Amino acid sequence: MQVQNKIVIVTGAGSGIGAATAKHFAKHKATVIVSDIKEGKAKRTADQILDEGGKAAVIPANVASYEEVETLIAKTVDQFGQLDVMVNNAGIGPRNMSKTAEYTLQDWDNVIAVNQTGVFYCMKLALQQMMKQGYGNIVNIASLAGLKASLNNLSYSASKFAVVGMTKSAALEYATKNIRINAVCPGYTESALLNKLLSVRPDMDDMLKSVIPMKRYGQAEEIAEAVVWLASDATKFITGQTITLDGGTSL
Asked: What superkingdom heads the lineage (predicted)?
């Protein structure tokens, strides 16, 4: 993984895929800005990186706030002089799993604000900095739910389909500017979102595993491997792509 000395922001890095990704970048000698809406969780991830001899700093941010994303990127550049990689991982799911006609306005607004508008804010502001410095790399965390139908999950599915579309559109726009933009689409992965679902519907555990050809959930570390690879200098000719990590579920 050729990411040594790169300055990397990972949003939603307080737990799950975000925390695993932050740690994996640090393992490969990048400097990681650990960002999360919950500062305490971000600090816990950063402390784990520092304890293992890595380089990390904490800058909390709610990606649904344009001003907080501005501050996140401005502080990063002020402190480290550049922004090499932006990993847009922060995301939430709906409070209620409902069919479209019964879907709550609150669940729609909240999920779209973080998963779609938040990614737009982060891309817009990161791209402004990357254009100034003449290079950059963005990796967006989409989902299998952004590639195929997801029942009773309209806002999440809509937001992740949007992330895939934004990734491809922006990659095309900046392909000649030495800026690459890709996305990963995890399937069912052991994470806070999955744990929340299974706590409400424990009966879904066997059902979900039954549709995964590998008969297991993904691990956050497995997703992190793909993110760091896409952000590395080993993938200089890859842009506008979605890498699906789902144990064969989409086959």
From this structure: Bacteria
Across the range 108-137, mean pLDDT stands at 98
Taking only Cα atoms into account, the Rg of the chain, rounded to an integer number of angstroms, comes to 17
With tokens 């990734």, the residue in question is: 167
Helix H or strand E segment including 25:
helix 16-27
Query: Nearest-CA neighbor of 87 among 3, 156, 18, 187?
Result: 18
- In sequence order, what are the residues at sequence separation of 6 or more whose Cβ sits closer than 8 angstroms to the Cβ of residue 203? none
- Percent of the chain, pLDDT > 90? 90
Instruction: Check: CB of residue 10 under 8 Å from CB of residue 89.
Output: yes
Whole-angstrom CA distances from 216 to 168, 213, 220, 223, 248 are 30, 8, 13, 14, 10
Asked if residue 139 lies in contact with residue 223, where contact means CB atoms within 8 angstroms, the answer is: no
Calculate mean pLDDT across residues 123-151. 97
Of 156, 174, 188, 217, the catalytic one is 156
pLDDT of residue 62: 98
Measured distance CA(60)–CA(76) in Å, rounded: 11
Concerning whether 217 is annotated as a catalytic residue, the answer is: no
pLDDT digits (tens, 9 = 90+) for 64-109: 999 999 999 999 999 999 999 999 999 999 998 899 999 999 999 9
- Beta bridge partners of residue 100, listed in sequence order: none
Q: Which two tokens stand for residue 217?
A: 């959930």
Nearest-CA neighbor of 92 among 109, 67, 78?
A: 109
